């Protein structure tokens, strides 16, 4: 279990912003300064942030954070990265609204013009007076869910708010708060008619939110933990029109080290004698550039459930000191399942995302040749600038097989109804396993994992097709943008937000 939960991280962030901006509490000083009276905390990354909190943080901040986390968690050395994250986020947002954070001892006069919202916090946020709390942004999503129910046109965002709007917290002026409440009230009356398509509803909402952001009265924030060695910056997303209306000129390629989607079957992975693949992921690193903005990221496609898998994207940040890249501590996001399946289906040109994949006990029925041929095809392909994907080997418990026999054996293992039947199958294919005195192999979720490895192959096929048509850059860009909830066309439905993250 993580030391700091997602909810605690978001609450601590917005409360720290309130204490820094509204109450004027000090963001602290450089603790390594010998005099401990100069060397202000600028909010940019400094080496001391890996092990120390700022010196002389305003007591209003420390008391509030300790009250939320509990004194034990707040004092835990492992929480240092989080405390610096919340303070540095507050410094960046304070500068965004034109307020200069105090970097001395105690307090200065704060900026009291703002209200503070936490999407999951409702009307009450411990650490912020009720009069300074707003929940007006949540009404948009609440109304949209009502609209879907009444209209019978459900599923636009798969009931996931973040697929539309990744905002975690927000600042809003009292005048803008009233405008948003009035807007929501009008929407509520319109919903009862439910005549417009959901897309029309969302576009009208997004246009209104963009106006509020551009007018300076709304600051919707998506939060990411600071990566050690990399400063926090802000990036405005889905706020300004895209030149030409869509992204169509990009660069993108896979980069070394070699990507992997290993197929070796092993036992006792993580203990428990469960049959498993040595890796259940397809993982690679990519670099894209849209205009003057470049992003390096890695993606991992792994099992999410028996019937699907998810694509997790994590940024690679350029370090402030010493050069080189480091994987971000926080995910950029997950590609929405429906969008990911649509992408892979479009590029793979081999049926839908789930084509040729059966149910448990029938995963490979009638399709052994199809999947063995596809495995051979993708394992031979050399991607431009990177080379081959590391596919591991078609081995089962240390015994190697040609591709067709390998998939036939996977089919037999899938068909095993219980551990006893699986034991018989594995003993027949692995002489070393058969000679074991105490055989206790377990099937676990192996059928679902076979399904996931087949999805890995289809993802690879999609990438190969894109690579051969010099369109890999667009596929890589689409994956990143969809994970980060960024528009690729002005007509896309993602809401405006400001991302606070190491960049």
- Helicity level: 25-40%
Structural class: alpha+beta
What Rg is obtained from the alpha carbons, in whole angstroms?
Answer: 26 Å
Low-pLDDT runs: none
Strand % is 15-25%
Give the terminus-to-terminus CA distance: 27 Å
Mean pLDDT: 90
Total number of distinct structural domains? 2
**Count of strand segments:** 15
Write the H/E string, N to C: HHHHEHHEHHEEEEEEEEEEHHEEHHHHHE
Could you name the key traits of this structure?
503 residues; alpha+beta; 2 domains; six-stranded antiparallel β-sheet; 15 strands; 38% helix; 17% strand; globular
Describe this structure in words.
The protein is α+β, with helices and mostly antiparallel strands and 503 residues long. 38% of the residues lie in helices and 17% in strands. The chain has helices spanning 6-22, 59-69, 71-75, 80-96, 138-151, 161-164, 174-191, 198-214, 337-348, 368-380, 403-415, 419-429, 431-434, 446-468, 472-484, and strands spanning 114-118, 169-173, 218-223, 232-237, 250-260, 265-266, 276-277, 281-290, 293-303, 309-318, 325-327, 333-335, 395-396, 399-400, 497-502. The strands form four sheets. Strands 5, 8, 9, 10, 11 and 12 form a six-stranded antiparallel beta sheet that branches. The two termini are 27 Å apart.
């Amino acid at each position: 279990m993580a030391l700091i939960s997602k909810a605690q991280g978001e609450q601590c962030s917005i409360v720290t912003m309130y204490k820094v901006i509204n109450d004027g509490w000090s963001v602290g000083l450089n603790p390594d300064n010998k005099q401990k009276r100069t060397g202000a905390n600028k909010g940019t990354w400094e080496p001391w942030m890996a092990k120390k909190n700022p010196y002389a943080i305003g007591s209003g901040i420390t008391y509030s954070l300790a009250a939320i986390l509990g004194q034990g968690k707040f004092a835990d050395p492992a929480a240092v990265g989080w405390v610096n994250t919340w303070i540095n986020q507050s410094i960046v947002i304070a500068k965004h609204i034109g307020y200069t954070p105090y970097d001395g001892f105690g307090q200065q006069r704060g900026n009291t013009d703002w209200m503070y919202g936490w999407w999951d916090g409702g009307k009450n946020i411990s650490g912020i007076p009720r009069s300074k709390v707003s929940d007006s942004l949540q009404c948009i999503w609440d109304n949209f869910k009502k609209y879907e129910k009444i209209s019978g046109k459900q599923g636009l965002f798969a009931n996931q708010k973040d697929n539309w709007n990744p905002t975690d917290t927000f600042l809003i002026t009292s005048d803008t708060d009233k405008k948003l409440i009035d807007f929501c009230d009008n929407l509520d009356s319109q919903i009862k008619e439910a005549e417009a398509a959901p897309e029309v509803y969302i576009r009208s909402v997004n246009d209104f939110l963009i106006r509020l952001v551009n007018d300076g009265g709304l600051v919707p924030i998506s939060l990411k933990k600071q990566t050690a060695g990399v400063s926090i910056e802000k990036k405005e997303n889905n706020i300004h029109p895209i030149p030409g209306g869509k992204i169509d000129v990009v660069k993108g390629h896979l980069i070394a080290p070699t990507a992997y989607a290993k197929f070796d079957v092993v036992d006792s992975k993580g203990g428990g004698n469960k049959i498993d693949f040595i890796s259940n992921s397809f993982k690679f690193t990519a670099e894209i550039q849209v205009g003057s903005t470049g992003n390096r990221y890695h993606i991992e496609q792994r099992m999410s459930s028996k019937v699907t898998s998810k694509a997790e994207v994590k940024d690679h940040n350029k370090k402030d000191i010493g050069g080189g890249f480091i994987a971000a501590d926080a995910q950029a996001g997950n590609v929405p399942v429906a969008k990911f399946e649509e992408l892979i289906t479009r590029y793979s040109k081999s049926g839908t995302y789930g084509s040729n994949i059966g149910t448990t006990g029938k995963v490979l029925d009638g399709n052994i040749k199809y999947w063995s041929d596809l495995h051979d095809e993708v394992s031979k392909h050399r991607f431009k600038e990177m080379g081959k994907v590391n596919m591991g080997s078609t081995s089962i418990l240390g015994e190697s097989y040609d591709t067709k026999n390998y998939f036939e054996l996977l089919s037999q293992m899938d068909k095993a109804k219980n551990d006893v039947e699986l034991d018989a199958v594995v003993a027949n294919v692995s002489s070393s396993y058969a000679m074991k005195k105490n055989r206790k192999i377990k099937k676990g979720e192996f059928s679902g994992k076979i399904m996931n490895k087949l999805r890995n192959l289809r993802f690879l096929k999609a990438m190969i097709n894109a690579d051969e048509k010099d369109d890999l850059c667009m596929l890589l860009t689409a994956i990143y943008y969809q994970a980060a909830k960024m528009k690729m066309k002005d007509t896309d439905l993602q809401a405006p937000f400001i991302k606070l993250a190491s960049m």
